[in-house]
Amino acid sequence: MKHVLAALSVAVLVVSCATPSREQSLVDRAVNAMGGAERIAAIKTVAVKANLKQWEPEQSDVPGGEPRFANEASIEVVQDRGRRASRTDWVKNFAYPAPRTFTYSEIVTPQAGYVLGVDSNGRNAQSMKMSPPAHSMSGLRLATTLRESRRNSQTALLSQMRASPDKVQPASDIGGHPAVSFDGFIVAFDPLTGLPSRVRTLDYDNIQGDVTYDLLLSDWREFDGVKIAMKRRTELNGRLVADTTFTEVRINPAIEASRFEVPAALSADAARPAVRNIPYQWVIRRQFIGTYLDSDHAAYDTRGPGLRLQEVAPGVHQVQGGSHNSLVVEMSDHLIVMDAPTTDAQSLWLVGQTRARFPGKPIRALVLTHHHMDHAGGLRGILAEGGMLVVGQGAGAHFRRVLAAPMTRNFDLPARSFHMTPILEVPESHVMTDSSGRQVIVYVMDNPHAKGMLMGWIPHAKLGFVTDVWTPGPPLPAKPNPGLASVVNTVKRAGLDPERFAGGHGTVADYQTLVKLVGQ
Length: 520
Ligand SMILES: [Zn+2]
Hints:
This protein is of the alpha+beta class. 25% of the residues lie in helices and 34% in strands. It has 14 helices and 26 strands.
């Protein structure tokens, strides 16, 4: 009996070696469907022209509502696979947060990544210093760009999968399409054609929690015997966020080496790709709206001085030094925080600061001025302290869903349940008072930026707090706009007498200057 079993196991072993696994078969079939290993190996260079549109779900007008149309762009990509270098020339016409056009190039070489030109309203110190504007990519952006480039080059990705069969692992079918996993990607295949139909990653979003991020491939056409997908839909948790159409593909065009050259000043201290704790969705989607701060911290420029907690009135402290601020109000036995920007990394920093500065005073309430990902994305890090969430009218159900979402891929916080977090939805205004009589009051604003937006009011300091409708600190524009007017209108309607305002962006500024401008 023993001998029979041994013989059987040998036979099974032999069979398993000789027969390719289901996963290998799917990969082999896809490589053949795309033109075969030989033709794919013969691809040395590629040039692509494409048009695309992008949308941002977490900058919507209504909490949890329709994604905001962000931009319409054209790109020209050249790739030299031998040099492992690529260049993407962008013309990006934004609709949000303000109409503008950024024309710039991204160059990625085996050493580093670079941006030539201005690609964001949130420029880092190096971009501001260089003339003409340019900067090297942060390690976070470089790692993200490299990952997305692999997702978009199916011939290269499938060749890598074929060359490393041991790294190709089983995965669950997606929508009836058989799938395999490989090096952080899940690739599904069209059962009819064998071509890859979807390239998925399992990402983390600071609002939605654990998410799927998918590239859906269709409209395959042949170029020099190689099939390329001309239509590419990008979906976040099944919702369209980018729509790309290839308009021109050239295989093995001549590409001048100079196309990949960058100023020497940039290459000197350029970052290597980050290898862990990469907030992919933050890096990708802040670029959708042209506000990405290219830095190795999501919250501030690592080439600058960093975050600080600045007292701006007695018992009132503003987080300054980053791209986005919070306000902390010290009450008799607790703290109230307004806004939880960027990611939980910033919130954990703030919680550490408050524990050191205000021992024994826990954060009892987090007020969010509005639901946008850049001002609310650190909510879990603050709410983990056990406080209540205060949001404007119409935002309660959205945040109940947000807090119920799984968050196992959040690398800043261990996974936990937030279903016990109380959520207070403010219909018009709400007063929070401590035992000494100190108050924090919030008012719903009629405003052009987001539904259910709140203004904060700290009576003892005669200080207001607003986000995204006015940035206190930098010079005011020459003419009033609906956002600025909404601040003055809310103050009037509520009958307040502010001296100054602090902001979710900027610092602190005199209120009368705003009144004069809006009164013009
Ligand atoms: Zn906003």
